[in-house]
Design brief:
Helix content is 34%, strand content 24%. By secondary structure, the protein is α+β, with helices and mostly antiparallel strands. Strand 6 and strand 7 form a beta hairpin.
Length: 464
């Protein structure tokens, strides 16, 4: 069975006994119950569901390392003023992700990083919040003035198994590379010698290696490409004579559909979409309402691995918290429910001193064609009082992006056979070895990506 088939098994609910134990936080008992069931003669899909759940429980333990006292000390490193009363208040308000493991309350590995980024929490502790961002604001001003902005970007990425899981033998690696589109062009490998580069228009594009190695292998790639963004103001400007990105493929049925077990039109999300657009008929106004809901109501939070959540869009809408991917997915789902074609896009985002994984969305408007929406960037702007930047990320993104994926949970080429580090996205890369049990790798990889340099290109020429 392939990894995709294992993931498809998650459409099945857990057997009641195992679900009760898991919900009660009795993870050891749940693991024993899983092993007992797996010793039976089971239907294939149920067996794969239980094997997948074993991997989910293992990763759950890794994601929640702090007990309450450790969590208090972790947050005190960020906010030295923190006292126990305030810690309890933040906990009661649902601002710190936790689970119970065998009777012990444990907190998410990045809960303190979430509160460090939250401008509302910063204000609460009396820390300054700056609404300006010279890096983004200068690009936004150029785009508004000139209508387009092109940059040639050079990146270097690498991936390796961590030393504690390495075994001599065959190793396979995938690193994301830019898709070809109106938005991205002139992709060129500078060094790294991969065995293959994925199709330029694949749902997810990667460089791929397969090597026999007796020592710890490191797979690296240096490449460059051109990123071009054209300015859109769909709320106020007249519809253009032709789409801003005329070579982009038109919407298809998939851009309006549910997808697998994680992009679902639940009753709550259908009701939410209908409520937010009551009395509204224009698609652009509906999309704007959805964007405002996500950016103004959903607080940014680092969440557990998507693999550990059961319903991504509804999780975000119910808890009013989520990272860039959950926010983008919620926007996409609300658009699709309302008949607005929408799709996923993800890869990397870069600024002067940081390059990291990022997710955003695209939505389709007649005349404009495919436009962008970045709810997490827009939400950050809204919370710090930067209204112009908030408006910009409805219709646009900045050009300092590398889009490697145009579909959520897209398969890689060649297909992986073990549990992926990130089953839903291809941003940091994947690595596997047939000599290892598929459950051993999990998050145990070392990856890194850095921007080597960039240059602004003349507005009229982006051929490279």
């Amino acid at each position: 069975m392939t990894f995709t088939e294992y993931m498809a098994s998650m459409a099945l609910p857990l057997p009641e006994q195992i679900r009760k134990l898991k919900d009660a936080g009795r993870l050891r008992d749940a693991e024993r119950a899983l092993d007992a069931r797996l010793a039976m003669d089971l239907p294939v899909m149920l067996r794969h569901r239980l094997l997948t759940e074993k991997e989910r429980l293992r990763r759950t333990r890794d994601d929640y390392p702090f007990d309450e006292q450790q969590a208090f000390l972790e947050l005190q490193k960020v906010y030295p003023e923190l006292d126990e009363k305030t810690f309890r208040q933040l906990d009661d308000e649902g601002l710190m992700d936790f689970l119970f493991f065998d009777g012990v309350k444990r907190y998410h590995v990045r809960f303190a990083a979430t509160l460090r980024k939250d401008s509302l929490i910063k204000k609460r502790f009396g820390h300054p919040v700056d609404s300006g961002n010279d890096w983004l604001d200068s690009m936004i001003q150029t785009l508004r003035t000139e209508g387009t902005l092109s940059r040639r970007i050079t990146l270097e990425a690498q991936i390796a198994p961590s030393a504690d899981v390495f075994r001599p033998g065959t190793w396979r690696a995938w690193l994301p590379v830019p898709l070809e589109s109106d938005q991205q062009s002139a992709f060129q490998v500078l060094s790294g010698q991969p065995d293959s580069i994925g199709d330029a228009h694949a749902p997810a594009r990667s460089a791929y290696w397969e090597r026999e190695s007796g020592t710890l292998p490191v797979f690296s790639l240096r490449y460059r490409y051109i990123s071009t963004i054209r300015y859109a103001d769909p709320l106020h400007a007249p519809v253009p004579a032709c789409p801003l990105y005329p070579c982009a493929a038109p919407p298809c049925d998939e851009d309006l559909a549910e997808d697998g077990v994680f992009i679902r039109f639940t009753p709550y999300l259908r009701t939410l979409a209908r409520t937010l657009t009551e009395g509204i008929t224009e698609p652009v106004e509906k999309a704007w309402r959805f964007y405002c809901f996500v950016t103004q109501k959903v607080r940014y939070a680092f969440v557990r691995q998507y693999f550990l959540l059961d319903d991504l869009g509804e999780y975000c809408a119910l808890n009013l918290r989520g990272d860039c991917g959950l926010q983008a997915l919620l926007f996409i789902i609300l658009c699709r429910i309302s008949g607005i074609p929408a799709r996923w896009q993800s890869g990397l985002s870069m600024d002067e001193d940081y390059t990291g994984a990022h997710d955003w969305a695209q939505f389709y408007l007649e005349g404009w064609g495919w436009l962008f929406a970045d709810p997490s960037y827009g939400g950050s702007a809204w919370r710090c009082g930067a209204a112009d930047r908030h408006a910009f990320y409805f219709g646009n993104i900045d050009p300092m992006r590398m889009a490697a994926n145009r579909q959520f949970m897209a398969p890689l080429t060649p297909q992986t056979h073990q549990f992926r580090h990130d089953p839903y996205d291809q941003q940091s890369g994947e690595i596997e070895s047939p000599e290892l049990d598929c459950a051993l790798l999990g998050k145990q990889i070392d990856d890194d990506v850095s921007m080597i340099g960039w240059e602004t290109l003349p507005a009229e020429g982006n051929e490279g």
